[in-house]
Amino acid sequence: MNPKMITENLEAIRKNSPLVHNITNYVVMNNTANALLAIGASPVMAHAQEEVKDMVGIASALVLNMGTLSKEWVESMIIAGLRANERKIPIVFDPVGAGATAYRNEIATRIINNCNPEIIRGNASEIMALVNQEMKTKGVDSVVSTKSALDSAKYLAQLHECIVVISGEVDYITDGNRVERVAFGNSMMEKVTGMGCTATALLGAFIATNDNLFEAAVNGMTVMGITGELASAKANGPGSMQMHFLDCLYKLSEVEIEQAFCTVE
Amino acid sequence: MNPKMITENLEAIRKNSPLVHNITNYVVMNNTANALLAIGASPVMAHAQEEVKDMVGIASALVLNMGTLSKEWVESMIIAGLRANERKIPIVFDPVGAGATAYRNEIATRIINNCNPEIIRGNASEIMALVNQEMKTKGVDSVVSTKSALDSAKYLAQLHECIVVISGEVDYITDGNRVERVAFGNSMMEKVTGMGCTATALLGAFIATNDNLFEAAVNGMTVMGITGELASAKANGPGSMQMHFLDCLYKLSEVEIEQAFCTVE
Amino acid sequence: MNPKMITENLEAIRKNSPLVHNITNYVVMNNTANALLAIGASPVMAHAQEEVKDMVGIASALVLNMGTLSKEWVESMIIAGLRANERKIPIVFDPVGAGATAYRNEIATRIINNCNPEIIRGNASEIMALVNQEMKTKGVDSVVSTKSALDSAKYLAQLHECIVVISGEVDYITDGNRVERVAFGNSMMEKVTGMGCTATALLGAFIATNDNLFEAAVNGMTVMGITGELASAKANGPGSMQMHFLDCLYKLSEVEIEQAFCTVE
């Protein structure tokens, strides 16, 4: 993980403006579309069973998010996921609220088994619930530390041969063997709904422009965290945080990325 | 109604972070989730018939809002409401647009009769439409004053043994006998979509942490109004109003609450 | 096109507060409701097949937007459109993403043929796709200039006897014969999701208060563009752009409209 590598990935997004197809939840659709626009990608939200195959057909990445899941939407996610596999375009999956209800556990498992996502991103409770269905989640909020979910993440990554991202105060990215730790970010991010979903959506843009999945995930979470730090420095609360996040993401520069690394080390 | 009582309720929300389960409308989901986070609660939005029972099973309050109702969602609301009754967790119901169409009147009646909400909150037209189905609402906007709806509110509260809140320039809270008048707030709040729905969602957090339903409703509407005043003092229009509202709600202090009371008296 | 005419239309919206019924997409519902409130109109979002007839029955304009279309919603749009025709209230149609999938092309054609919209507004790719179904759209983003879509727009306007608006860096409004060019706006608008949908929604307010459809469309796009310029002058990025847009729209004055014309000429 170094500033140069991250900046290059960011520049590739801005240059190529990849079409990222999102089948996501009602709460965050506006935010995630805006975050994808701010970073330079081209978002599209489409969920009709009649068209998801076609939309995946022109997309560079597919983002599946089960935040406000229901039967019809899940079917669309599966159809879109299978088409993405056929076309060999990457999938990022966000198991929002896994552990909160039996239905969420069932659907998360079904999506993972059918669609083989390249990246799974969740909070600690969600990632643990994907491995141990006895694990409980408080609605969509985590009740455990990211560190404690690391073994579950590694197991999951090995089992499904994918990248698993646990996000929280500190993020962990693993391919089952390697583990990268991203310690950027600010606690104000938890006070804005859909920040996790925004991370997932942005990973779609990074993975669409970087063949190295592990690097793409690390780059994405780093950009997310640094942007969160920059925005929180300007914010007076969660309302202005949300606004500054988009402004900062839009303007994020190589110098800012380098400076963030200097501050940490 | 006094500042101390309100601050205590607010502190209880911040300390306990109650899980508030919302089955609400598409327009306001993001705002209401953010308002609940800003006040210190833990919001979850989930509507699938397959999971609402389970989600109510871990929630501390249920918020039902029929803003963008449709058949499937109404069924989920009923299922969730019945489960909330079983678990004896409180329900806040928002009859958005009651009076605008026959369907809305029918569904509002059905939800009230089946789910027995602890609090019903609406604007004056909506509350009157629940009593007199000849009453007309202009879309989702009220066409009458809150004062004129007070008799309807009292009747409704007695009939269903619940608290009824009429919100508007002045809010009225009644249990059918007592009436409390809350005169905080600012006209700019009407220019931001979903401010009424935000009040309803916040009532979910207050009622989850206060066994006295009447007090909880008064406290919630007071916090809503004071926050609106603080935000409007900083706002240049409805866009910045929405942002400042979340920032002010997040930071709302005992001193600010006390000062607001001083200004009124 | 002159400042006086535009200001008069704006004043008519603020004075009459027309009820604009929107059946629109999940991504932009909040923004478009807020934009309609900011300009002085009264928005309502309702899509249940059981009630759209009744809601159209009290509305002054109907806005149909197929951004996140699905079978049930399309049926509701058709029902609402037919009722609007019966009542002779104007329809504005936004063929979001036409050209991206075969399903979108099919539905756009079906809505236009069944509902006979008074105004069709889209970006260049979308307008061209309505005429030439071989035309491709990149998700919901245009890949061609507005100028190049002008012939398609004229053809479409003549064929369906309606007004067609192509929006982009420069907007074109045509009734099939006349063409008006609106060159206000700012490139930051493209970085905020749903700005096109917001234009469509605002056209609903203009057309509800102006019997001259062509003028209403020109006025609406001019107000949209001038507001975008004013907002972008204050914005630091797409997040603050969205906020300032609503604030500026709320406050937009005759003087500001006049000054914008002076700057252009």
UniProtKB/TrEMBL annotation, chains A, B, C:
Enzyme class: transferase
Gene3D superfamilies with a match to the protein in the record: 3.40.1190.20
Any one GO molecular function term: ATP binding
One GO BP annotation of this record: thiamine diphosphate biosynthetic process
Pathway(s) served: Cofactor biosynthesis; thiamine diphosphate biosynthesis; 4-methyl-5-(2-phosphoethyl)-thiazole from 5-(2-hydroxyethyl)-4-methylthiazole: step 1/1
Binding, ATP: 121, 167
Binding annotation for substrate: 45, 194
EC number: 2.7.1.50
Alphabetical keyword list: ATP-binding, Kinase, Magnesium, Metal-binding, Nucleotide-binding, Thiamine biosynthesis, Transferase
Reaction equation(s) it catalyzes: 5-(2-hydroxyethyl)-4-methylthiazole + ATP = 4-methyl-5-(2-phosphooxyethyl)-thiazole + ADP + H(+)
Cofactor: Mg(2+)
Superkingdom of origin: Bacteria
Family designation: Belongs to the Thz kinase family.
Physiological role: Catalyzes the phosphorylation of the hydroxyl group of 4-methyl-5-beta-hydroxyethylthiazole (THZ).
Name of protein: Hydroxyethylthiazole kinase
Organism: Marinifilum breve
Taxonomic lineage: Bacteria, Pseudomonadati, Bacteroidota, Bacteroidia, Marinilabiliales
Gene that this polypeptide is encoded by: thiM
